[in-house]
């Protein structure tokens, strides 16, 4: 199996085991984002398992969450899923309302250029983490703005009901 | 609900899609919220699998997760109007818009869907409270003007 690049912050198995459950979750998410960034040509769950010693199901779960929250990309090649970094996020702005933060960034990758919206909420450790996200192609931004305006009008009708 | 044997004979991706649809239906029928153990006693998917799929659904804005102490409760995001006519679909993308409601109020949900041959499973999504949509539009308009040069 081809070796992958690993971040310096990778904990030894024993040190990882001593972390409280919540910290383990945060650690795995952060370490996977770093592993993806260090391996822009893509990695499989098996490669990360081999390199980190973390279990397949733990890695698969977190990689799928990263994909669902628009923090990574996945391309299925036959029966093999290859995970890629989303790209380097360029921070633009935050919109904060009632303890929910929407972070706007731009990112470029082999699929194109995107504006990303990430929804962050405070976790039990007191830090804000991404709970949801979406990548919007730059060329569709005008259409998305116009559609959101229409959706806003529709939501007003429902608010009156 | 499929018999366990039939479920086990599905491919991995079919199992995932089936589990997502089943869990969404179960949440829809239990709008007061459910925990993983509650669902686990009622269906055969298994605790870990149920938890995994609920977490995926929550991360795609297909359901709502709330923590009450050490207990995690999952609620449905009820679609009050499917804005199908607003769908944006091209060769490589599919974005859908819906008005949804959960225990906190009404939201606009924006999701991106896979462009598969047979499925249009949700890839990711966000929900925005109806009363902040105006601000989100302003933010996107500002970003377009200041950062997205032609």
Characterize the structure shown.
The complex is a heterodimer of chains A (161) and B (150). Chain A is an alpha+beta fold and 161 residues long. Chain A is built from five helices and six strands. In chain A, helix 2 (21-38) packs across helix 4 (56-68) and helix 3 (45-52) crosses helix 4 (56-68). Chain A has a four-stranded antiparallel beta sheet with strand order 3-4-5-6, with no helix packed on it. In chain A, a hairpin with a 5-residue loop joins strand 5 (112-122) and strand 6 (128-137). Chain A has helices spanning 13-17, 21-38, 45-52, 56-68, 141-160; strands at 72-77, 80-85, 90-97, 100-109, 112-122, 128-137. With 150 residues, chain B is an alpha+beta fold. In chain B, a hairpin with a 2-residue loop joins strand 5 (94-102) and strand 6. In chain B, helix 2 packs across helix 4 (47-59) and helix 3 (36-42) packs across helix 4. Chain B is globular, with a radius of gyration of 17 Å. Classes of the chains: A alpha+beta (161), B alpha+beta (150).
Question: Characteristics of this structure?
Answer:
heterodimer, A: about 160 residues, alpha+beta, Arc Repressor Mutant, subunit A, Nuclear Transport Factor 2, Chain: A, 2 domains, four-stranded antiparallel β-sheet, two-stranded antiparallel sheet, 5 helices, 6 strands, B: about 150 residues, two-stranded antiparallel ribbon, 7 strands, globular
Mean pLDDT of chain B: 92
As for the CATH topology of the largest domain in chain B, it is: Arc Repressor Mutant, subunit A
How many domains make up the coordinates of chain B? 2
CATH architecture of the largest domain in chain A: Orthogonal Bundle
The percent range for strand residues of chain B is 25-35%
The Rg value of chain B, from CA coordinates, equals: 17 Å
Overall geometry of chain B: globular
Number of β-strand runs of chain B: 7
Low-pLDDT runs of 5+ residues of chain A are none
Poorly predicted spans of chain B: none
The CATH superfamily of the largest domain in chain A bears the name Winged helix-like DNA-binding domain superfamily/Winged helix DNA-binding domain
